[in-house]
């Protein structure tokens, strides 16, 4: 059961995303970055400036209602508290017509935490604090990656956590924004090095405290997971 407010988290937001990936569009609704023609042909509404990392004709498309259900609305399937139907919404297959007007994210069982060892104590403690702050919102936790120490990722040395917050890997969600901003606001107690969510990065050594919409935009890495639309990455000192 998804209990956190969806539209209160999305309102008055702007996101930079790759084509067919999430954005925040008209009315603060969850949207998808597609061409104006694709949006129009699907009965959606486009706004400019919400997908500025892409070409001029790629805009954030939203569709407030869809005909699969009497109260149908278009959103990412992972964020739908009811049934979802394909073929009624703009964008890729994971943007579907949702039967429920309920808002919110998550509803997952508590994830397992990695043991302290290769995964460092600071990471495990940070993971526990985040999960406690957002019960039901984190589906799975990853710490160690199979890479040599000294490589660029903090996962290699056990100083990073991926908080998976959608229904599956590679499945987009808008859930991570609230988690990412909470980590930023609690950076000192968590000993945060940097945060990545939704193709944006925040680093306390160079960035002031600000809304996720004003975080620095990262390059398009080519898919939902690498662009961090299914998980929040937190690196620790």
From TrEMBL:
Signal peptide per UniProt: 1-17
Annotated ranges, domain ARB-07466-like C-terminal: 117-229
Lineage: superkingdom: Eukaryota
Entry keyword set: Signal
Entry protein name: ARB-07466-like C-terminal domain-containing protein
Pfam families on file: VldE
